[in-house]
């Protein structure tokens, strides 16, 4: 490890440290804005080229550009466009076979003159694979071989020595994200598609249908409109949801009774029926709603529990489950 002495002017000065951090972010933000204003028809051509591919998007790059390439391939794959990353040095030693007609090759290089990319570029041209080049030098190796050239601004790196790849890699990443998100929209890739490709992790939890986490069947606290309130209170206490659904003779949800309703009618609970206490036309959740959307609605309405309903005869709401805000916390959503 190379050890250098800290600059006395910044090492023990919190304001200077914060100022330097902000300076780096401002440098990179300004470069992104410059690239945004420089996008032209070539970007649209690149998106259409990717969308029209019969095979995969193959991404390559060397060094830090390679790290960006790996992330770009992962983002494409996660948003409906099959993609993979191939290291340019490995490609020259047999992995060129991973590129086949019908694919699109995305080549990322700041200088555009990385020697290790030559074999990949030559092979792509030989088998008729279109090349999308991302580089900062218009006349470079990558841009000369590109069917669609996407130049990035030749911006100064955030490094004081103008050496460490910082601004340039931020631009590469931003441009690849822009390609992936635009193609995703052009493809019509929806939340349903995201749900299929992200069954696990935080994204999987957010896209989980609320019906997959609801309490259903005998665990639902349901009572008829003519139920005695002492019986309803007993059911609510044992259920632990703080809510009871009131249904009619056809099983349709016509109201709910919450802890708040109990407090408001405390003095008469011993002598009235459920229909006298319930709140009519309650807020409900759709069975196909995502867990994230359901939690947002509960928070927006400032309620702690709700019934999930499906449409029955005559579009009447039939309760099929119930969720409490604690159920979301239990699986890691908050």
Describe this structure in words.
With 334 residues, this protein is of the alpha/beta class. It has 2 domains: 23-189, Rossmann fold, CATH 3.40.50.10490; 210-331, CBS-domain (Roll). It is built from 15 helices and 12 strands. The chain has helices spanning 8-11, 14-38, 41-52, 64-78, 88-91, 118-126, 141-145, 167-187, 191-197, 201-207, 229-239, 259-264, 274-277, 291-301, 325-331, and strands at 57-61, 83-85, 104-108, 131-135, 148-151, 222-224, 243-247, 253-258, 279-280, 284-286, 305-311, 317-324. The strands form 3 sheets. A 5-stranded parallel β-sheet has the order 2-1-3-4-5, sandwiched between helices. The two termini are 42 Å apart.
Please write out the topology:
Layout: H1 8-11, H2 14-38, H3 41-52, E1 57-61, H4 64-78, E2 83-85, H5 88-91, E3 104-108, H6 118-126, E4 131-135, H7 141-145, E5 148-151, H8 167-187, H9 191-197, H10 201-207, E6 222-224, H11 229-239, E7 243-247, E8 253-258, H12 259-264, H13 274-277, E9 279-280, E10 284-286, H14 291-301, E11 305-311, E12 317-324, H15 325-331
Parallel strand pairs: 1-2, 1-3, 3-4, 4-5, 6-7, 10-11
Antiparallel strand pairs: 7-8, 8-9, 11-12
Helix pairs in contact: 2-8, 3-8, 4-8
Pfam families: CBS (PF00571), SIS (PF01380)
Family: Belongs to the SIS family. GutQ/KpsF subfamily.
InterPro entries: CBS_dom, CBS_dom_sf, GutQ/KpsF_isomerases, KdsD/KpsF-type, SIS_dom, SIS_dom_sf, SIS_Kpsf
